[in-house]
Amino acid sequence: MKTAPKLFLQIQQPELATELLALPSLRQFELTISQQGHCWLAQLADSQCDLAIIEANAEQQNQLQALSQSSVLDKVQCLFLSQGEPSMIMDHLMGQGAGVHYRAPFNFTQLKANLDELFWALDPSPQAPSPQTSYLDQFGLLVGSSPCMHQLYRTLRKVAATNANTFLIGESGTGKELVANTLHLFSQRSDQAFIAVNCAALSPELIDSELFGHVKGAFTGAHKDHIGVFEQAEGGTLFLDEVTEMPYEHQAKLLRVLESGEYRPVGSQSFKQAKVRVVAATNRTPKDAIDEEKFREDLYFRLAHFPIQVPPLRNRQGDAVGLAQHFLAYRNTQDHSNKALSSQAINKIAQYQWPGNVRELKHTIERAFILAEQTILPEHIVTGGLADAASDSQSHIPAGMPLEDIEKMAILKTLADNQGNRNNTAQQLGISVKTLYNKLDKYGTDSLAHV
């Protein structure tokens, strides 16, 4: 029988211990209370606990120092309570991402919410699946129960406690913006803005204005002041998606801001402070982008104080089926329906590699929901990736067929599978929407009649 998550409690002040033990959020854990007069770090190491609440005071400096060098931090999430005295050891622990540091006077409401959240994340009890429910674990905005996702959750919790710039690396469709937003939600900046900008979509002529803002009259068409994303995100988190696609010459300007901590709006004579945490992301391999001179190596190291790999769906054991159930449950709730996945459809979902990752899976379930009457069958799971288009039509491509015609076939097939949705089609084909429109214009209306 599975037990509740385990919590280790090391509190010396009787009054504080009493207040903590009165919290229902704490009592839901399986408790291990340290024995006073003995080395609590050794007790913690032997306890096999998932979480620890530790009172940090001057008398504990030696053990806190030992904790900072211990492998215990890799296995246990820590909440530290102190009276707020400056402590280099505590600063070092926070820099390691050891946990959350609460200073007196303690906000027990906030502590209770954190304990509830941690219990929910650590609780091994499964939920019974049904068409109306999702049984996957959730951390912030992320959903998934696979080991690699739980590893990601632990990493995000540690990194969120710091101000380190973070670089997310993952394929298209893996949910990098959700990862960045979750990192923001668990940070001390969560009450400030989260601003996301797609660097690939920025116009080269206006990129400085979008990032740093401009003053009225700075250039033709600047009829009023404009606040850039660095100022919009002040005090919060700025997410730079597809940062490797930023024009190379503009990367030097971004590097200068990250190094100096200040920027100047276009047309302004005064500098402003860049009071933001920067989280960047790419679907490229950074080394390849650097070798191809698409991305500055010095900018990468400035952004990647802490690089995080976001796993593709094919590496998330069991999550594809769980996410399909999750998306279906939300659609059922939204439409007051009770559609269910057949066992054959579940097998098809489990066996497919999902090159478009979670985004492709979500769109596939949306299509299946529309196509199915009550039970979603394998024929309703229509995958729209290029791999399927190639496998379906490979035998029908005559030898010597011009590449331009093969490209046209792939585009029209993918567009049909996406029911005419050009944004989804461009994403799956790996081209911009503008490029897709240009190619469709070239093909003419006759070619599009069947789509």
From TrEMBL:
InterPro entries in the record: AAA+_ATPase, AAA_lid_NorR, Homeodomain-like_sf, HTH_Fis, P-loop_NTPase, Sigma_54_int, Sigma_54_int_dom_ATP-bd_2, Sigma_54_int_dom_CS
Keyword line: ATP-binding, DNA-binding, Nucleotide-binding, Transcription, Transcription regulation
GO biological process, any: regulation of DNA-templated transcription
Top-level taxonomic group: Bacteria
Molecular functions (GO terms): ATP binding; sequence-specific DNA binding
CDD domains referenced in this protein's UniProt entry, alphabetically: AAA (cd00009)
Domain Sigma-54 factor interaction per the UniProt entry, residue ranges: 142-370
Ribosomal protein is among the record's keywords: no
PANTHER family: PTS-DEPENDENT DIHYDROXYACETONE KINASE OPERON REGULATORY PROTEIN-RELATED, TRANSCRIPTIONAL REGULATORY PROTEIN
Protein's name according to its UniProt entry: Sigma54 specific transcriptional regulator, Fis family
Lineage per the UniProt record: Bacteria, Pseudomonadati, Pseudomonadota, Gammaproteobacteria, Oceanospirillales
